[in-house]
Design a protein that fits this description.
The protein has 286 residues and is of the alpha/beta class. It has one domain: Phenylalanine Hydroxylase (Orthogonal Bundle), CATH 1.10.800. The chain contains 13 helices and six strands. Strands 4-3-6-5 form a four-stranded mixed beta sheet. It has a two-stranded parallel ribbon with strand order 1-2. β3 (186-189) and β4 (192-195) form a beta hairpin. It is globular and about 55 Å long. The N and C termini lie far apart (50 Å). Bound molecules: 7,8-dihydrobiopterin and fe (iii) ion. 7,8-dihydrobiopterin binds at residues 97, 100-101, 103, 106, 116, 133, 175, 178. Fe (iii) ion is lined by residues 133, 137, 141-142, 183, 198-199.
């Protein structure tokens, strides 16, 4: 199907891991929780334990508090049970998907407060790095913040913006926004920089690197600057964008982006390691 061609191009021409044969028109599948093996639950526990002990002093408080309430340490979670609690908290639900889904589908789910969670779990040899999102990245990395009303509202708005962007070819700009916030975003706290991006929170190595390594740039969030900045998908980020609080993320992504897209089309995209003259490069955590 053309969808595979699109995503295959997206994931450097390789094939996708998931089984899409039973997916419905929204790419939703049954989670089939009973199919997970004891070995997979054990791998989940190992991944969870390693990541959870990295969170204190690095993940933002909202993430840590919400993750604890999910009680997801002992086995791969039942998405339906999480949906029951999530629906009450912010009106979101989880939908099981075979893996990456087309942008249009992805945006439609987000615009309707449905978060797609991949059903398969990585192999033991992929403990430290995986190319496509698996259930650990999607659930551990993304689901806790969906319990925060401000973030939940932002993500639905992002989905609606995505549907509009598909019509005004603003997709690459929105993909950069998603990348530098939802996936790799940093946030300020009274104790210093903290992480809210799922790609970092579900990664063993980047969670320390992004906060204390002197090499990457750490730039105050500015939506147009983010949308101009290219990103890399197979290495630690060279630049991180820092928000003051989740309200800033919601407020600065509320307006219609069409005028920004017009202005961006006239400007060169910036390499990921750019620091413009006069731009603030926030210090790493001491
Ligand atoms: N599909 N399942 C899934 N998860 C994602 O995070 C995802 C996706 N499809 C497209 C996509 N992300 C990105 O292109 C977004 O920037 C749209
Ligand atoms: Fe993700």
């Amino acid at each position: 199907a053309d969808f595979f061609k699109t995503l295959a191009e997206k994931s450097d021409g390789g094939t996708l891991r998931g089984d899409y044969s039973l997916a419905d028109e929204n790419y939703v599948v049954a989670q089939n929780w009973q199919h997970y093996t004891e070995a997979q639950h054990e791998l989940w526990r190992k991944l969870y334990r390693r990541q959870a002990q990295l969170l204190p002093g690095r993940a933002c408080d909202v993430f840590i508090d919400s993750l604890e309430r999910l009680d997801a340490a002992d086995a791969i979670p039942h998405f339906d049970r999480t949906t029951e609690a999530l629906q009450k908290a912010t009106g979101w639900q989880l939908v099981a998907v075979p893996g990456l889904v087309p942008d249009l589908t992805f945006f439609e789910h987000l615009a309707n407060r449905r978060f797609p969670v991949t059903v398969w779990l990585r192999e033991p040899h992929e403990f430290d790095y995986i190319v496509e999102p698996d259930v650990f990245h999607d659930f551990f990395g993304h689901v806790p913040l969906l319990f925060n009303p401000v973030f939940a509202d932002h993500l639905q708005q992002y989905g609606k913006g995505g549907l509009k962007a598909l019509k005004t070819d603003g997709l690459k700009y929105l993909a950069r926004l998603y990348w530098y916030t939802v996936e790799f975003g940093l946030i300020e706290s009274p104790q210093g920089l903290r992480v809210y991006g799922a790609g970092i929170l579900s990664s063993g190595g980047e969670i320390e690197h992004c906060l204390t390594n002197p090499t990457p740039r750490r730039i105050p969030f500015d939506v147009e600057r983010v949308m101009r900045t290219l990103y890399k998908i197979d290495s630690y980020q060279e630049t991180y964008f820092v928000i003051r609080d989740l309200e800033q993320l919601f407020n600065e992504t509320a307006p219609d982006f069409t005028p920004i897209y017009e202005s961006l089309k006239a400007q060169e995209a910036l390499p990921a390691n750019t620091l413009l003259a006069g731009e603030m490069n926030l210090p790493p955590n001491g």
